[in-house]
Each structure stands twice: as C-alpha cells, then as structure tokens.
Amino acid sequence: MVNTSSPTFSIRVADECFEDYILNSEFTFTVTGYARVQIGEPVAHWHVDAVEPYLKNYGIDSEEFCDYRDAADSTVLVAWLDEQPVGHVVVSQHWNGFAHIDELAVDTGARRNGVARKLLDVAQFWSRKRGLPGITLETQNNNLEACRLYERYGFVVGGVDHLRYRAIDPATQETAIFWYLLFDVPGVDHCGKPL
Fold first, then answer.
1. Could you point out which of 53, 119, 177, 185 has its C-alpha 20 to 30 Å from the C-alpha of 145?
2. What is the mean pLDDT of each run of 10 residues along the chain (195 residues)?
3. What is the DSSP code (8-state) at residue 132?
C-alpha cells in the first residue's frame, strides 16, 4: 500500500517492469451516470442521467504501447510513490501536430494524491519541449472524475462524438469527448476562439 503520510514522488520512463505494473494495478472507476456534454459550459453545469452505479474497466494492454517508449515522437512515463508504480501516461505527437495523450491511468489505491495532475504536468513539459501548440485527449461522458480533472487543469472541450462506441454496443449512451489544452497560440484565446 502507498505511504500516504509523505510519499516520495517521481516519474520515470517505463522500463521492463511496465507489464508487471499493469497486471498488478487496478484502474476501474465507478460510473454513476452519463453526462450530456455542453461545449462551452463547465462540467458542473452538464446534466447527468443517473444510472445504477457500476464499475468500468477499459482493460489496459501493456503491449499496445510497447513501441511508444523508444520512439522519437512518443513516450510512456510511469509515476512512482515511494518505490511503487501507481500511474502512467502515454503521450505521442498526433497527426494534427498536437501532442496526444493516448492513455492516462492511476491505480485506484493511489488516487487523490495528485498523481494524474503530475502526469499531466510532465506530458505538458514533453509537449512544450517539442514546440507543439497544445495537447489533445479523449475521455467519455461516463468518466466524470476525469472530465473534472481535465477541466481544472485547463483543458476545454473541442468536440463530442455520439457515435464512436456504437459498433461496440449499438445501445450505448457512452459518448467520446475530445479535450484540448492550448498553449500560447497567437491570436487565439484559451478556448481556441480567435481574439
């Protein structure tokens, strides 16, 4: 278990222990509802259609990102509290010129320690170091904690896709939300609108 009194925090490039960390971590979250995303409105103003709470797990595959660690245009970074891996971020340069967070996950036992925010900090550092104009990522309307985190961090909703998951489940209420963190882009405000 993580030492919560004053853990030592570090972020390292994923190594050969990444697969063990993934297999021994718990990344589920509780779904309590599906938000009706309103672009330009704070998450707190989104209407949420409540559902009977259930656990959601997207099933993280350590092999999926094995080539990202050593590539010039991507990386896999692991957060450590003391000597325990507790979270990770996979970031790459997207086809559109933005950095793209392909995955951000924190073990359930380490949440509420600022791990996700610190992983976002290092992803931002990685992106700025490469001169990219910002970061994009996708989450879903049933992961409200993630939506709140991204909003607090400064991301804004750039788009919503209601059909993205219909091939998996034709009756799904799950909606893809595309978030953007824009850096200092001349002539554009933090929401992506022209000045």
1. 185
2. 69 88 92 96 97 90 78 92 93 95 95 94 96 96 96 97 91 94 72 59
3. -
